[in-house]
Prior knowledge:
Blueprint: E1 4-6, H1 11-19, E2 24-26, E3 33-37, H2 41-51, E4 60-62, H3 69-72, E5 73-74, H4 78-87, E6 92-98, H5 103-106, H6 110-115, H7 124-127, E7 132-136, H8 141-150, E8 154-155, H9 170-177, E9 183-185, E10 197-200, E11 207-210, H10 216-223, E12 227-228, E13 258-262, H11 265-275, E14 282-286, E15 298-301, H12 308-325, E16 329-334, H13 341-351, E17 356-358
Parallel strand pairs: 1-9, 2-9, 4-7, 6-10, 11-12, 13-16, 13-17, 14-15, 14-16
Antiparallel strand pairs: 2-3, 3-8, 4-8, 5-6, 6-7, 10-11
The structure holds threonylcarbamoyladenylate and magnesium ion (MG).
Amino acid sequence: MKTELLNPNDIERAAGIIRSGGLVGIPTETVYGLGANGLNPMAVRNIFQAKGRPQDNPLILHIPDPSWLEIYCQDIPEEAWRLAKRFWPGPLTMILKCKRRPPEELKNSPVCSLTHEGPYIIPDVVTAGLDTVGMRCPAHSMCRAIIQAAGVPVAAPSGNTSGRPSPTSAWHMLEDMDGKIDAILDGGDCQVGVESTIVDLTCQPPLLLRPGGVPLEELQAALGKIELDPAVTRQLEKGEKPRAPGMKYRHYAPKAPVVVVKGSPVRSAEYILEHLSDPRWDGVICFNEFANWYPGYLVELLGGALDTWEQARRLFRALRAMDETGVKRIWAQCPGDAGMGLAVNNRLNKAAGFHIVEV
Ligand code: TXA
Ligand code: MG
């Protein structure tokens, strides 16, 4: 299959491909997504195929407007409307209860058996058979225009091959998906750079499943108490199950093993300097302030030591850049947990398989 590279004028074309069951790379403010008609089980199955994604890892649905929640979800708590008002459109995904299909539809309707099986309006293949669904209303203007024009909820995981860092440019997505999908619409570089924050509103108190583009502190200000799923901050023990199935998989990983070094920026920079060995094989991802500390080594800058937004924006790009070089080991500085630091920590820890040094 030839993968077309579309430009911002091709919104209608992108929407048309989605409506007719194809796969399109769509820009969002977080990362590029691999979009398909979320009501078409065949199209959704092709997403799993193109990514090499495990079948038990559900997809989130992208909608143009909060009012669409009522079409696909039920028992929507007041908190969901509050969060939608405050953070949508934007990098927040809410886990809500799926709406059941009316009983008469479930009984021998030929139309429905053609479209999908399962008790909910959203096909089982989207939710991996769960009774909940992740809903997101993205902020990227082209993404919104595509969903509006398609007129269907768009199922979209991040547009990377499973396990690789998520793509933050059309070019990065093409690297992974060329020849496997119909098209990618180039909407420029992603402004957030890490995926959406996921909050589960089907439990009390709400549970943070994945830190992302909306910092935890802002969610707390809007909601009050929130708990953190253990998978956010540590490696799960054998047999432990995260609530977001995707959090159990190795993820965001470049080819070379990563060592994350935590501590004050100067101490972690010194630690890396003391432990570097061969300039041919060791690469460093460091804060801008230390750009000149490792002459001769391959260095990717993460942003200023205190600018966790910039770090989030650059992280996946830096991990992918390391892959281009053939380095055999990557040392990475890591910010504290405040603000966007929690998301940067989470992605770096996962990229490193929780190989973390505290200095
Ligand atoms: O920013 C984002 O969220 C991007 C852009 C494209 O919108 N999308 C994205 O999708 O990151 P994905 O599939 O790469 O990550 C979604 C995560 C996975 O870890 C999945 O397991 C979890 O959300 N998830 C999806 N549905 C869920 C559900 N019903 N309950 C718990 N976790 C769910
Ligand atoms: Mg992903």
